[in-house]
Every structure is written in structure tokens, then in C-alpha cells.
Design brief:
four-stranded antiparallel β-sheet, 11 helices, globular, seven-stranded antiparallel β-sheet, Jelly Rolls, Arc Repressor Mutant, subunit A, single chain, alpha+beta, 41% helix, 3 domains
Length: 334
């Protein structure tokens, strides 16, 4: 029996969060009742994903997402004990642009009139204009995708008759995903003008994915550029070549543009990298077993020498690394 959980009525028409947990299979009457309940609470512009991936009984779809103006952003997780390759229709998305960034498993997309499907594996994305409607199936028991649905017809011609596919770590997709995470984190605090600006930036970033280029000098996109750079930094803190130049190359912008975006946010790239490395070093000092030495931490986190590391650590946390480690160990034994 399908069940909807944690959906709150959208008191502000411009935005709203929702989640659902669907368990299958269900009878036709149960599916109709579930869809009606979803339409009433979340709105018809937010599609209810089907969970009918198996014919043997044990399948589940979990959805968590938010709506901002006329754009939907969701995380969808499908799981099934068996997978029999059943196609699931997507006519709920008619006339919309749909972006799927596959994080786990393999999703296969196709149209009823087409013989060949398009397989999209983890680490890839597909953008398709859902007119006429596409359908999908999954190839593994556990599958996850980040989905964006945009009722923005003027972007349709950029997809033409064929979908656009690419790598999820492309510069343009990094910016788009960073923007969605940033909007998700700040959704409840956005003013009506902020909602519109966030929506417009999202549409512009999707356009960049389709054109395979994004104008990093556009001031509206500066926060997304900063967030994407921070995401890269956190994943490459120990990399010996981590630098503004490396980040700029990965994000397909100039170093000057990247510095300008950080300056607009009252930050510095170098300071952000240093603070993140110091934080990782601090966490390492709280490890009860096999605690690294000060010189090992300085070398691993790319400080010029131990003296430099100790000086920066004390400036940040008010204690030297050795003092911090002793005080933490003492607090644990109290």
C-alpha cells in the first residue's frame, strides 16, 4: 500500500518541501487514491513517481524534494528485491524539461515509438524534453537519481529531438548541482524576490548545461560558483595541486572570475582552503588512537612547515595543536 509522509501544505505558493515513501505493488484503486492524495497536498505540477518496477511485489520508491516557483528538484531512490525490466511511463512530465543526474545504478530511458533506449549510469546525466513523453526502467536493485523538472518550454529546442547526455562532474553540472544544494539549504529564508532570483539562476544554469558553457562572469551566478568551488575544495583538501588555478580549470572560468565571486561573498579562496584544512587537522587531533604528530599533520595538510601550521592553528582555535590535543584528552577522561 502506498503511503505519503511528511508532506506539508504549501502555504507559500512560490515554494514548498515534500517527501513521500511509496511501496508497491498496489491495486489500480490504491494507485488512484494515492495519486489523488498527492495532487491535493503537493499539487499537480509535482509529479508522483511510479513505484511499479517489479511484478513480484517488493519495490519501494522514496522521494524527497522541494519546489521553487515552477521548478521541482527531487532526490529519488528506487529499491526492489527483483527487477524485471518493466517500463514505467512518465506522462506526468508532459511538456516539461527533465534533468536526471544518476548517482547510483543504471536508468534506461526511451519512448514508446523508439526501439532503442538510452542507458544512463552513475556519474552521468540526461536532459530530455518530455514531449512526447519518455518512459524509464532501472537495471539494478538499488537506484538513485537527482531529478530537476522545469516547465520551461523555451529550453526545449536546445534538446532538439534527442536527449543531451554528459558527465555529472562537468563544470556546468557542478554549478547547477551546487545551486540546487544552496537553494535547498536556504529555502525557508528566501524572500519572494529571492525565490524568483533563485529560480531564474537555476533556469540559466540548466541552459548552461544544454549549451555546454556557463557565463561565470554573470553576477547572478556568483553564489553558485562559490558553492561549486567549495564543494571541490572539500573533496580535494589533501591534493598537492589544490589551488585557485585548479578550481578555475575544473569550473571552466578564469581565476579572476573565481576570485571576484569569492570577494562578492566577503571570502577568500586561500582562506577557505586553509580553514578547511585546519578543521580536518583539528578533528584528527581528537582521535584517541594513532593520533598523528604535529609534523605529520602539517605535511599532510600542505602547510609549509610545522611552525606555520602551529601558528595558523593557534590563530584559528586559540591553542597550539599540542595544547588542543591535551585539553581534548583531559575532557574525555573527566
Amino acid at each position: 500500500m502506498g503511503e505519503i509522509t511528511e508532506i506539508e501544505p504549501d502555504r507559500r505558493a512560490s515554494r514548498g518541501r515534500f517527501s513521500t515513501d511509496l511501496i508497491g505493488p498496489r491495486t489500480a484503486a490504491q494507485r488512484a487514491a494515492l495519486r489523488h492524495q498527492w495532487d491535493v497536498q503537493a499539487g499537480r505540477t509535482i509529479p508522483l513517481p511510479a513505484a511499479e518496477l517489479t511484478s513480484t511485489g517488493d519495490s519501494r520508491a522514496s522521494v524527497l524534494g522541494f519546489r521553487i516557483d515552477d521548478v521541482l528538484v527531487t532526490n529519488i531512490h528506487y529499491g526492489a528485491a527483483t527487477v524485471d525490466g518493466r517500463w514505467v511511463g512518465c506522462d506526468y512530465f508532459s511538456g516539461m524539461l527533465v534533468v536526471d543526474v544518476v548517482r547510483r545504478g543504471t536508468w534506461e530511458f526511451g519512448r514508446a515509438r523508439d526501439r532503442d533506449g538510452v542507458a544512463v549510469s552513475a556519474g552521468q546525466f540526461i536532459v530530455r524534453y518530455n514531449n512526447p513523453s519518455w518512459r524509464f526502467t532501472v537495471k539494478e536493485h538499488t537506484n538513485t537519481t537527482r531529478k530537476l523538472i522545469l516547465p520551461v518550454a523555451h529550453l526545449g529546442p536546445l534538446v532538439h529531438k534527442r536527449p543531451v547526455l554528459g558527465a555529472a562532474d562537468s563544470a556546468e553540472m557542478r554549478l547547477l548541482l551546487a545551486h540546487t544544494r544552496m537553494v535547498d539549504a536556504n529555502l525557508d529564508d528566501l524572500s519572494p524576490a529571492g525565490v524568483r532570483a533563485a529560480r531564474d539562476a537555476l533556469v540559466e544554469l540548466v541552459s548552461g548545461v544544454l549549451r555546454r558553457r556557463t557565463d561565470g562572469t554573470e553576477p547572478q551566478l556568483a553564489p553558485s560558483l562559490v558553492q561549486a568551488a567549495k564543494d571541490l575544495v572539500r573533496g580535494r583538501l589533501a591534493h598537492p595541486e589544490l589551488s585557485p588555478a585548479m578550481l578555475a580549470r575544473e569550473l571552466n572560468v578564469s581565476v579572476r572570475t573565481l576570485h571576484r565571486a569569492f570577494t562578492a561573498a566577503d571570502e577568500s579562496i586561500t582562506a577557505y582552503v586553509r580553514h578547511q584544512r585546519l578543521e580536518q587537522a583539528r578533528l584528527a587531533l581528537t582521535t584517541p588512537a594513532a593520533r598523528p604528530s604535529v609534523s605529520e599533520l602539517a605535511r599532510f595538510w600542505r602547510f609549509s612547515d610545522s611552525s606555520h601550521f602551529i601558528r595558523e592553528f593557534k590563530k584559528r582555535y586559540g591553542q597550539t595543536p599540542a595544547q588542543y590535543a591535551r585539553s581534548h584528552a583531559h575532557a574525555q577522561h573527566l
